[in-house]
Amino acid sequence: MAMRQTPLTCSGHTRPVVDLAFSGITPYGYFLISACKDGKPMLRQGDTGDWIGTFLGHKGAVWGATLNKDATKAATAAADFTAKVWDAVSGDELMTLAHKHIVKTVDFTQDSNYLLTGGQDKLLRIYDLNKPEAEPKEISGHTSGIKKALWCSEDKQILSADDKTVRLWDHATMTEVKSLNFNMSVSSMEYIPEGEILVITYGRSIAFHSAVSLDPIKSFEAPATINSASLHPEKEFLVAGGEDFKLYKYDYNSGEELESYKGHFGPIHCVRFSPDGELYASGSEDGTLRLWQTVVGKTYGLWKCVLPEEDSGELAKPKITFPETAEEELEEIASENSDSIYSSTPEVKA
């Protein structure tokens, strides 16, 4: 029986949401961080969207945000010419890394000891987080502002994207291994460690390349300009969103469009699958995050599938219900932590 996709809407930001990232799966579940032009990155419980806290300290738009694998540290990149590292448990700012221009992207190594940054000054920087006073290592070679930079191949290599070029670097020698040139601006880049796959979006294209060699694997064309795409952890599905406010879901193997629906009230800037693949999150110009089920109708997180009993005489209609206490719980969390980093309570709505 066909079921309607019912997203969870996570409010709280006051400007466009431009980046988001999930942690790995921890003993406490998994977590989601969002970057927003309001300068206030937010941390949420990943499977429910419940707001945990807001990192306060940036003085400009936050363009990039990430969590380390076990969700103990967060990093943010901002227009105030800084990248910041945070204690993701307490919300405390651990360090501010000054740059010479706007910072767009941050990424931790797997052991959380190093932070990679990139931005408008066209340089990649590698900071040793155990030696915050030390000068970072710098890699030059990009000819325009860096939009995204990611560790890959067990932190032995680095992938970075500027306006129309994606480059692969060797970490040990700090030299370029290979590059890809595009005839349109690269809008996003995602690295999938399992299988070493690189997902790149530009124009209406969603392209898959080997993260080791940059050789092409396959590509799909979408009906509209795409700003972001994400591959399911088991490589079954692909989701993408862009300028037409819609989310698209494709079969990764065949390229067939499986679903499409209006996702937001503005262009979609970022989409990412959760680490368990049960949901994906989208961030938009409309200032909201939304969580979507990979398999519609499955009981998971705040989604609950209710089937009326067959002998009730009613036509069985699956529906999704939500706990009435979801927002009350958020208010309690906020009141308990009113003296810490937490700001006004965002909402999670069905």
Automatic annotation (TrEMBL):
Annotated PROSITE patterns: WD_REPEATS_2, WD_REPEATS_REGION
Pfam families: WD40
GO cellular component: cytosol; nucleus; SMN complex
InterPro entries: WD40/YVTN_repeat-like_dom_sf, WD40_PAC1, WD40_repeat_dom_sf, WD40_rpt
Source superkingdom: Eukaryota
GO biological process: alternative mRNA splicing, via spliceosome; maintenance of gastrointestinal epithelium; negative regulation of transcription by RNA polymerase II; negative regulation of transforming growth factor beta receptor signaling pathway; neuron differentiation; retinoic acid catabolic process; retinoic acid receptor signaling pathway; spliceosomal snRNP assembly
PANTHER family: EUKARYOTIC TRANSLATION INITIATION FACTOR 3 SUBUNIT I, SERINE-THREONINE KINASE RECEPTOR-ASSOCIATED PROTEIN
Protein's UniProt name: Serine-threonine kinase receptor-associated protein
